[in-house]
Amino acid sequence: MEHPNGIILENHATVTLIKIQGDITAFSESFLNEAYQKANQEGTNRFLLQFEPDAYINSGGIAVLIQLLALAQKNDQRIGITGLSEHFKKIFNMVGITKFAKIYDDTEQAIEAMLG
Amino acid sequence: MINEKTVELSLPNVVGYERIAMGCSETFAKNLGFKRERIDDLKTAVAEACLNAMKHGNKGQTDARVIVVMNYDDDSFQVEVWDKGEGISQFPNDPDIDRIVNNLDPVFGFGLFLIKNLVDKVEFNKIDSQGHVVKMVIKKK
């Protein structure tokens, strides 16, 4: 029933774009941690997480994302988020993720803003 | 609650099957004229109630079932999610992301938090002979 995760990393100057394919649930923990470690190796301290607009994100996935935000906070890194549906923009705001990661409407706009 | 409009699903107690209930509730609510925003709220609430039932209510037992009963009236959609558990003895506080990110609180309680904030009414009841039920109402608005 799970849609398997995939990841593509792209460097845009000082921003690493992390394209996340698939759903975000409790099963995504090791995958997302691995993605974060790989992004860390790129040597940038600004990460843009790009989700698929039809991704299923549940409370387990939200918990995993918050753990990742905690790591980024500890390492003085900046996180942006893009690709979310309107529903998940609302959910992320509701649970407080937007206190620690800015949500952008599109990827190009996000990269430009994060480079500034 | 069961009448000529009722839809009832019996799900395996396996994480992932909550998507069947999400898809069914989406189709049902769409046919009733609910708007996309409300349908998305409904789907998330149904998913989280099913996940709680599977993990906490039925404690992951693979031979247990989660029963989802859906119905509607003029302006609202009602969903019951049944498991064989004892229910919630003490409701957790709403998660505080500032404390969680600073490692002062465990990462916990987001499922209930989402349910409470996405539906118009929610009740948690233990019914001795039948198990525990979460009853949710979401209005068309």
Report what the structure shows.
The longest helix of chain A is centred in the middle third of the chain and has 16 residues. Chain A has a single domain, classed as 2-Layer Sandwich (Transcription Regulator spoIIAA), CATH 3.30.750. The model of chain A has no long low-confidence stretch (mean pLDDT 93). Chain A is 41% helix and 23% strand. Chain A is built from four helices and five strands. Chain A has 116 residues and is of the alpha/beta class. The termini of chain A are far apart. In chain A, β4, α3 and β5 form a beta-alpha-beta unit. Chain B is an alpha+beta fold. Chain B has one domain: Histidine kinase-like ATPase, C-terminal domain (Heat Shock Protein 90), CATH 3.30.565.10. Chain B is 35% helix and 27% strand. Chain B has a five-stranded antiparallel beta sheet with strand order 1-2-3-5-4, with helices on one face. In chain B, β2 and β3 form a beta hairpin. In chain B, α1 packs antiparallel against α2 and α2 runs antiparallel to α4. In chain B, 38% of the residues are buried. The chains are: A alpha/beta (116), B alpha+beta (141). At the A-B interface, α2 and α3 of A face α2, α3 and α4 of B.
List the helices and strands and how they pair.
The complex is a heterodimer of chains A (116) and B (141).
Chain A: E1 6-12, E2 15-21, H1 29-41, E3 46-50, H2 59-74, E4 78-82, H3 86-95, E5 101-103, H4 107-115
Parallel strand pairs in A: 2-3, 3-4, 4-5
Antiparallel strand pairs in A: 1-2
Helix pairs in contact in A: 1-2
Chain B: E1 7-12, H1 18-31, H2 36-57, E2 65-72, E3 76-83, H3 97-101, H4 110-118, E4 121-127, E5 131-139
Antiparallel strand pairs in B: 1-2, 2-3, 3-5, 4-5
Helix pairs in contact in B: 1-2, 2-4
